[in-house]
Design brief:
The chain is α/β, with parallel strands linked by helices and 202 residues long. Helix content is 38%, strand content 22%. The protein is built from eight helices and eight strands; from the N terminus they run αβαβαααβαβαβαβββ. The chain is globular, with a radius of gyration of 16 Å. The relative contact order is 0.16. The model has no long low-confidence stretch (mean pLDDT 93).
């Protein structure tokens, strides 16, 4: 999965999530691009022999955003084809098939998907559009789907607009945010899971 183009520097976040998951856990990754993060999770999941019936929801328009426009035009291959080609070997690995771990690909704008999403989630990882309005909309759309004790996480805390949205969301809900790993964040509240990893300086 390290050869797949992308921006995933949160392999350790997914590893720590898996250490805390129980069989049957469900996670949604908001923003999947070419599947690097998805593959990281599914690849690491293979080693957790006690975890079965894990569902990973990869939620994306699979059309790319403005920030990826030039890269996708130069390549010419539809984003969804990249995603499928990259993720199939991990989703269809014997370890994951035998333990009924599955990848669910969900097409659509994340806030619209959230409106009709029925599952309660053990973790949400937000890594879609990086402008303030879209990050805030994702935060507001997806936090109702977290189970009590769930993990509310995301990427790009070193991006000014992402950081401002996460901090404002926390302020309006009386939550706390900590930086974990290189550029990931976790929102803490009484109803959410405790700190996943050692906090990094903000």
């Amino acid at each position: 999965h390290k050869n797949i183009p992308g921006y995933c520097n949160y392999h350790d976040v997914y590893c720590n999530l898996l250490k805390n998951f129980k069989p049957g856990a469900k996670i949604a990754e908001i923003g999947a691009f070419k599947g690097q993060g998805t593959c990281s999770f599914l690849n690491q999941l293979r080693a957790f022999e006690d975890l079965n019936n894990i569902t990973f929801y990869a939620i994306d328009t699979f059309e790319g955003s403005e920030e990826h426009e030039s890269e996708l035009e130069e390549d010419g291959t539809p984003l969804i084809e990249h995603f499928i080609k990259n993720t199939v070997p991990y989703a269809a690995s014997l370890e994951n098939i035998n333990r009924s771990n599955k990848l669910e690909r969900v097409h659509g704008y994340s806030h619209e998907v959230a409106e009709n999403f029925k599952e309660e989630l053990d973790a949400v990882f937000i890594d879609a559009a990086h402008d303030y309005d879209n990050v805030m909309r994702d935060l507001r759309s997806w936090h109702p789907h977290l189970k009590e004790g769930g993990y509310f996480l995301g990427h790009d805390y070193d991006d000014d607009e992402v950081k401002r949205a996460v901090e404002n969301f926390c302020e309006e809900n009386n939550y706390e945010v900590i930086r974990i790993s290189i550029s990931s964040w976790q929102i803490l509240a009484d109803k959410y899971a405790p700190r996943l990893m050692k906090a990094q300086p903000l």
